[in-house]
Amino acid sequence: MHAYRTHTCGELRKEHVGRTVRLSGWVNRRRDHGGLLFIDLRDHYGITQCVVEPDGKAFAAADQARSEWVLTLTGRVVARTAGTVNEDMPTGEVEIRIEDVSVQSQAQELPLPVFGDLDYPEDTRLKYRFLDLRRERLHRNITLRSRVISTIRRRMISQGFTEFQTPILTASSPEGARDFLVPSRLHPGKFYALPQAPQQFKQLIMVAGFDRYFQIAPCFRDEDARADRSPGEFYQLDLEMSFVTQDDVFAAVEPVLHGTFGEFADGRDCGPANFPHITYQDSMLRYGNDKPDLRNPLVIADVGDVFARDDVAFKAFKDKTVRAIPAPGAGAQPRSWFDKIDGWAKSEMGAAGLGYIVLGDDGGKGPIAKFLPQPALEALVAKCGLKPGDAVFFSADAKTERAAILAGHTRTRIGRDLGLINDKEFRFCWIVDFPMYEWNEDEKRIDFSHNPFSMPQYAREKFLNLDKGDKDTILGLKAYQYDIVCNGIELSSGAIRNHDPEVMLKAFEIAGYAREETEVKFAGMLNAFRYGAPPHGGTAPGIDRIVMLIAGEENLREVTMFPMNQQAQDLMMNAPSEVSAKQLRELHIRTVAPE
Are the C-beta atoms of residues 3 and 82 closer than 8 Å to each other? Predict the structure, then answer.
């Protein structure tokens, strides 16, 4: 018999009754029922109930065991009596009559219990992550993550993609976040950067003629943590394709994502296999953001023209962007509900407030309704698709972006409050036609609005002849850029790449980079493009976010094996940490403490 186990703790069934077996694992629960001592033994595969009588030769050794001790138990498999079968456990029809106990390891008093799913402070969970990972929900999530990655890899290979690895030590590049820098010992005063994404390398792979590339790529960004963004590092399904249009990329990615979600949906509806396309402009108007949750049926309407009518006496909305957010059936809500929504907008969104109208059979009611004559009210009803019993809220601001953002958050709040969002669905879409550039109001200059390596949707010669005086034209340019969104969460950004060296130099020049600077920063890519570059494009769905959605979690920490805390610290390994003076001397570095 094997020294540690003949079977796993999730393997035994009724057909094993009568066999003598050996299991090894952790004590999940210990229960003393007076006449019998029960030990639920747990390993990666499951839990088996084991039992010993007080007069059994193994009782004394088993009686010493406590939670999370590691034991090897030998005994005979017996069938449970009809009244004691546990149908919730795969091993619930049998138990082990313990004949021998070997203690492999003892556990000190636990800083957090493994049995059960009690909520514990983040710092405790992260410091003792090895214990946290033993807990059923988190252990299941991490195993799910592995299965999801395996499925994605299989689906990519079946579509003719080849997996390659790209460098971790590379050069710094402006991709929208701070780099993690690594000092060079051999080249004093110079630094490598950890890749924010394998962007340049995957494009170079296309230039090298490999056609369809992918990898499950680690990415490093020195940015603040959020629920849907891990501090420090994350993983993405990085892919690139040659000789493709935007639609070709969509056709390759959709079956991978839709198929993966469908495989693990567990009864949830994954929506159509072909994802709808929504322009950035329409998304900002209809949903108030570029990450729309399409489970929410509410659609925002622009009603500025209604309040601009000469017969409307409500002056607060004059000369402003006004967005209307319908609230179907909300007329039945008490006045306190409307006040609560208005208070939320003021306290949490920093807005002046949210006006509203409640539609009845005899017209509108509410603080704004009296200012709208019947023809204006009818125009509003038609624009918003309202009917008696509905309500409508208004977001207004002199700046269109602020009005849109408040409307978007209000849409989400109302959808949740009214129970309109089905948590048993996955709804995907592509957001397309992003603006190439945006105006940086603080620095009074033009910036890239998305991926700087994207191809503009503009004739080549006309683009090369643009200058800073063409500000309106430049800010109106769209790029072949696209995002995948699922349930209000951005899964990835992608683009058809700018493979033309002159167009690329011009694109960066418009954003304030001198040609000489661009030549230095992107020397590898520009030089490669001058030796024959195919048209190419790709995208990079986030693995962490995919698993978070499939697992039904709201925080990436719950699907990441060893995450950092909100301050980008690894409490278990004490990173970041100080290093010795000798190490600093080898790297030709001195540290300067902040004041």
Answer: no
